[in-house]
Amino acid sequence: MLDVMMNDILGTPAILVGLFAFVGLLIQKKSASTVLSGTLKTIMGFVILGAGAAVLIGSLNHFSKMFDFAFNVQGVIPNNEAIVAAAQTNFGTSTAMIMVFGMVMNLLLARFTPLKYIFLTGHHTLFMACLIAASLSVGGMSGAPLIIVGSILLGICMVVFPAILQPTVRQITGSDDFAVGHFGSIGYYISAKIGKLFGNKAKSTEEIKVPKSLGFLRDTSVAVSLTMSLFFIIVALFAGQSFIETELSGGSNFIVFAIIQAITFAAGVYIILAGVRMLIAEIIPAFKGIADKVVPNTKPALDCPTIFPFAPNAVIIGFLFSFLAGLLSMFALPLIGLKVIVPGLVPHFFTGAAAGVFGNATGGRMGAMAGAFANGIIISFIPAILLIFMGDIGYEGTTFGDSDFGVVGIIIINILKLFGAV
To answer: What three-state secondary structure class fits 245?
Structure first.
């Protein structure tokens, strides 16, 4: 039962936000048809978002295989899902308990402190609960103290990280209706600061002027298709016709395959944006019931793609510059004795895109580029440093990818080391 609650209900973002929408509409005493419609459309918005992500990730996986073969890249690929799955054997029960009571702590902190955020990105809550459970367990904690301390730490993470981003989220969205609840927050925060330092927010990525003859590039889908086609074709040429047609395309021409995958990527972005628009349109009015009656003045903290529709050009610029930083970091890491972190396209897309939007909000085009580049460095170096400490507690094959996991893990393990627990 606990496993079902953790993985199938609380760990499934679509169900979690749907439950909050359901409760919010019930509290507002809406009609049965409105409650049913609002709940289903909230879940559907998240499912559409997930479907778009699956389409996009499928395309990026092909790109990764071509890239790895073309350039013979070897190293550690950060993967949240892989390390959480590996840790479940030893820390599954404590992870589940910390997740459940961490969410209760989130509600208490939102109710009784100025940090009015309810974190609704369920899978990230699960990942952070696992990281905290593993770190505290190897420090000698067990039983009730482990659950209590872990739940408090998780609850604090669930309100503090959205809070540090909220001033910039207000600039991005032009409202205070929702927050960003995603554990890549440190990368986004630094991106916004660097954008403000180096850029000019008056020169937004969304106001890039193009000649009249190139007016079709104002359509984000067209611009993304052309940009990604260029990248896919270049990497396909390096990977070679033989490899692609034998291993990936099932015999289809390798250039045609590359172009189709690039357009598939653009289609994934298009679907994500459509899902986000539906989700926001439903969850915000539904959440009003909870904010008014149960936990006053709170805001839902939602997954990072919820800000993508506010600056679609910054999304692509952010992804490209974050990935560029990941590539350069790959060569720099061994020079200071750290393991090579292979830049994963999925984390660089989602966190790089969000960092681009944050950088654009404070520094325009230069801010989007410089901020996303900084995010790319952060999600390369922090996982490499965390890998040292995770190796100390028995996990050497992979590491967490997003910035907040790395920072929280490094802090916990070092505090435990200070007390001689590790």
So the answer is: helix
**Structure token digits, residue 195:** 């954008």
Residue 316 φ/ψ, nearest 5 degrees? -75, -40
**274 three-state secondary structure:** helix
Scan for tokens 């104002």, then name that residue. 218
The length of the chain, given as a count of residues? 422
pLDDT at res. 1: 64
Is the separation of the CB atoms in 381 and 338 below 8 Å? yes
Does pLDDT of 7 surpass 70? no
Cα→Cα distances 255→60, 120, 221, 232, 293, Å: 16, 41, 20, 9, 57
Q: Which of 116, 122, 221 is nearest to 178 (CA)?
A: 116
Decide if pLDDT at 10 tops 80: no
Three-state secondary structure call for residue 116: coil
- Confirm whether pTM is higher than 0.85: no
The 3-state DSSP class for residue 184 equals coil
Span 398-415, pLDDT tens digits: 678 889 998 998 898 888
Task: Give the gyration radius of the chain's Cα atoms.
Answer: 21
Percent of the chain with pLDDT over 70: 91
Secondary structure letter of residue 5 according to DSSP: I
Q: For residues 33 and 328, what is the distance between their CA atoms, to the nearest angstrom?
A: 54
C-alpha 191/C-alpha 204 separation (Å) is 15
